[in-house]
Specification:
globular, Immunoglobulin-like, 6 helices, five-stranded antiparallel beta sheet, signal, A-macroglobulin_rcpt-bd, alpha+beta, Glycosyltransferase, 3 domains
């Protein structure tokens, strides 16, 4: 057990069994060189993945929650809250689930219905202050979301609170930034082999696009051509490939890591129905903890590129199975 992520998730698992079992791991995390405390709060830095950084910190907060340690947990809560996007989530589905759980569990420790607050929401533009809204928070509406939308651009947003209690105020700003196009984090190549009328094999090769480096947990999502299904049993699990599953007709492959040297997997597909005029299938490789790091390729076996109904289903074109044009809405 070497990484902060491994220690954090293990500490949470242990503390759920006994509040004292996680002390050794917590001490190790608190003395970690990746632990960072600044004006935004406390977190465990991971330069390779914002998502992994968020999830690691969330597991530490969950551990503090079980131990009822609000003193150490509060600065972690402050940092985690500031990482949320405008829609309340984080970077990926995984860190969002763990992050929201951590916020919920810690909120139980500091939550109180006893609240009586008045918040003045002001804007300041060109040195002139303007009251945009006055919000009241009390025991009757403490769990109701209230929001204020600014119609025009402002220089500053000022929040003034009077009274007693705890309230969370989020300020979200939306804008567009033109960015230079960055090279994809992955290189992906797809070719087809053993092309037959009722089967083919897709050779999928991926590499992390940073020399002498490797990804974190990665997914290769392999689609197959319409009328085919992935032959799951024929895909060997070995090396960095740790798990395979089929979901909605696609093959999902889980890799511990993908290095900068190309790794390949062979995915056989077999026909399950006759479909003519098929379109290319897609293959996607992406980082599990940062789905925006991805690459995608389309492919279509050469023998299917001009396939008509008579090729995919010869019996459909026999004299006995001929369908009158009028039945198709076409008048001779």
């Amino acid at each position: 057990m070497t990484t902060d992520y491994e220690k954090a998730i293990s500490a949470y698992a242990l503390v759920r069994n006994n509040v004292n079992h996680a002390d050794f791991l917590l001490n190790s995390l608190e003395s970690s060189g990746n632990k960072t405390s600044d004006r935004d709060g406390t977190y465990w830095k991971n330069t390779g993945s914002n998502s992994l950084e968020t999830e690691t910190t969330a597991y530490v907060l969950l551990t503090y929650s079980v131990k009822n340690d609000t003193v150490k947990g509060l600065p972690v809560l402050q940092w985690l809250v500031k990482q949320r996007n405008a829609y309340g989530g984080f970077y990926s589905s995984q860190d969002t689930v763990v992050g929201l759980q951590a916020l919920t569990e810690f909120a139980k420790l500091i939550y109180s219905k006893v609240v009586d607050l008045t918040l003045a929401i002001k804007s300041k533009t060109g040195g002139v202050e303007k009251v945009e809204s006055m919000l009241t928070l009390n025991s009757a509406n403490h769990d109701v979301l209230q929001f204020v939308e600014f119609a025009n651009k402002v220089d500053e947003v000022i929040v003034q609170a009077n009274g007693s209690g705890l309230a969370l105020v989020d300020i979200n700003q939306f804008y567009n930034v033109k960015q230079d196009e960055k090279p994809p984090k992955y290189i992906l190549n797809v070719t087809t082999l053993e092309e037959q009328a009722n089967s083919y094999t897709a050779k999928v090769c991926a590499a992390f696009n940073i020399p002498n480096s490797k990804s974190n947990l990665a997914i290769i999502d392999v689609g197959v051509v319409s009328g085919f299904e992935p032959w799951l049993d024929q895909v060997a699990v070995s090396g960095n490939l740790k798990r395979k599953e089929e979901a909605n007709g696609r093959l999902i492959l889980y890799y511990d890591e993908i290095p900068s040297e190309e790794v390949c997997v062979y995915v056989p597909a077999r026909r399950i129905s006759a479909v003519s005029g098929v379109k290319p299938a897609t293959v996607v490789v992406y980082s599990y903890y940062n789905p925006n790091e991805r690459a995608m390729k389309e492919y279509l076996p050469s023998n299917l590129q001009s396939e008509g109904v008579c090729t995919s289903c010869p019996n459909c074109c026999s004299a006995a199975n001929t369908v009158p044009l009028a039945n198709c809405g076409i008048m001779p």
